[in-house]
Specification:
The protein is α/β, with parallel strands linked by helices. It is built from 15 helices and 27 strands.
Length: about 500
């Protein structure tokens, strides 16, 4: 089944209901279906054939769902380009994916012009209000000139739908090929485990080039006939105002985003009572943060905690809201149509309580990395996707993420998990954000270094931070050094960019 069916189905049931709100632009389901069908027809008329790739470089706006669903209807593969990348990185992603067309926002006109010579394979450039001198076409002119594509191109379970690029923290980004079947299975996995309801108002804060924003938020709520409010960028007060004015019922964000909302000086002036369904993902949700969120949003009775990754389309495990406090920092149980286990270095399943690598198997697992069989073989073995995350399972079958496998450090022969130290740092009343990495140490091999963001007005010093950790952790786990920052560098999904922290001198 072509994933664009979710849009066509909702448009048939409630054509006049608002599907997308992007600033002043409101699109009904009928309008979104019609415009994306015309755009699909224009894509095909331009010479693009099913299976070819279309790169999408937009900030969150109505252009994104239009272009994305148009590509799917036309049988094309959507290449989702991270808008935060530098020009050479964007050129690499578009070149590596062998994209035949690029649809981009006017904000990226200068970047696209700069890298045009590095993308000889791209034959079609389309952008709103384009002034590029290399023949880029105007988006609305291109769309209006298309003959409406009345039916979606047929798609089988194994038909590629998306290429999403990993963050590249361990080298060049790799393009995970996600199929139409994987997205359909993820749809049912997520709505069953996360208990999503039809017709709700959803605020999308995260970028749509990320699997969480596109696959676990917009696609699901389009399929459920909801209204998606798109934020082009994260601005705490704008988010709070939108929650109040638009009576937002559903929110999904990383813990860092919730922390920034709660710490905003104007937060108390806005009504947040409309939010009744709240999800956290992308990074570990600490108990201290969880309790604050439960107080900050009076309409929720718990928090859904999702663990997932790009290579598994989006969802792997979900902790239901009712278990928020009972299961603490667990990421819940496996999605309904997915097998999950913890394995040792020989891929042997481990019993409850033991720490090993999390692996999963099922129809949501990527087809592989685009044009990269070696990396694919390293990630998928005997059908099991190896996530690179260290985890344990308890006796009731609930999973707990311990840390990234590559982030674990060994000091004097002892394993240290940075997340354990971070959780302690987050409980300090004068710390607003923190990240922990391992650094080379001549005596112990590695040592703990903490990067800390102080709350406004705090005079906290390094010695006080180290002493605080010493009282709550084994001595070998406490930071040896502390560096204070104005902000922790994070990815678009909210994860701390620890490679950048390790590179600091």
């Amino acid at each position: 089944m072509n994933v664009a069916f979710f849009l066509k189905n909702s448009a048939g049931k409630a054509p006049l209901k608002t599907a997308i709100v992007s600033g002043e632009r409101h699109l009904s389901y009928e309008e979104l279906d019609e415009r994306s069908s015309r755009l699909a027809g224009a894509m095909r008329s331009s010479g693009l054939e099913p299976g070819q790739r279309v790169a999408i470089l937009f900030l969150n706006s109505h252009y994104y769902p239009e272009t994305y669903f148009a590509a799917l209807k036309a049988g094309l593969v959507a290449v989702l380009v991270n808008t935060r990348l530098a020009a050479p990185e964007i050129a690499y992603v578009i070149g590596n994916s062998e994209a035949d067309a690029l649809f981009y926002g006017p904000e990226f006109e200068d970047i696209v012009t700069e890298i045009r010579a590095d993308m000889p394979m791209v034959k079609l450039f389309v952008s709103p209000r384009s002034s590029a001198g290399f023949g880029a076409l105007d988006y609305d002119d291109f769309l209006s000139g298309g003959e409406r594509l009345s039916e979606c191109e047929p798609a089988g379970e194994d038909t590629p739908c998306q290429i999403l690029y990993t963050s590249g923290t361990t080298g060049r980004p790799k393009g995970a090929v996600i199929t139409h079947g994987g997205l359909v299975w993820n749809f049912f996995n997520t709505i069953l485990a996360r208990e999503d309801l039809p017709g709700q108002n959803l605020l999308i804060i995260g970028p749509l080039f990320h699997s969480a924003g596109l696959n676990n938020q917009m696609t699901i709520h389009i399929g459920l006939g909801g209204t998606c409010f798109l934020m082009p960028k994260f601005e705490p007060e704008a988010v709070l105002r939108t929650i109040q004015d638009e009576k937002i019922g559903v929110m999904v964000a990383a813990p860092a985003v919730y922390n920034l909302l709660m710490q905003h000086p104007s937060a108390g002036r806005y009504d947040r009572g409309s939010v009744i369904h709240l999800t956290s993902g992308a990074d570990k949700l600490l108990m201290e943060t969880k309790r604050k969120i439960l107080s900050f949003f009076p309409g929720i009775r718990g928090i859904y905690n999702v663990y997932g990754l790009t290579e598994a389309t989006a969802t792997v495990t979900i902790l239901k809201a009712k278990d928020s406090l009972r299961k603490g920092d667990s990421v819940g149980k496996p999605a309904p149509f997915l097998q999950v286990r913890v394995v040792d270095d020989q891929d042997r399943p481990l019993p409850p309580g033991q720490v090993g690598e999390l692996a999963c198997k099922g129809p949501v697992v990527m087809q592989g990395y685009f044009r990269n069989p070696e990396a694919t073989r390293g990630a998928i073995r005997d059908g099991w996707l190896h996530t690179g995350d260290l985890a344990r399972m308890d006796e009731e079958g609930y999973f707990y993420i311990v840390d990234r496998k590559k982030d674990m450090l060994v000091s004097g022969g002892e394993n240290i998990y940075p997340r354990e130290v971070e959780e302690v740092l987050y409980t300090h009343p004068e710390i607003s954000d923190a990240a922990v990495v391992g650094m080379p140490d001549a005596t112990w091999g590695e040592c703990v270094k903490a990067f800390v963001v102080r709350k406004p007005g705090s005079r906290l010093d390094a010695e006080a931070v180290i002493e605080y950790c010493r009282t709550k952790l084994a001595s070998y786990k406490k930071p040896k050094t502390v560096e204070f920052l104005d902000v922790i560098p994070r990815s678009a999904s909210g994860k701390a960019l620890k490679n950048q922290l390790r590179d600091r001198k």
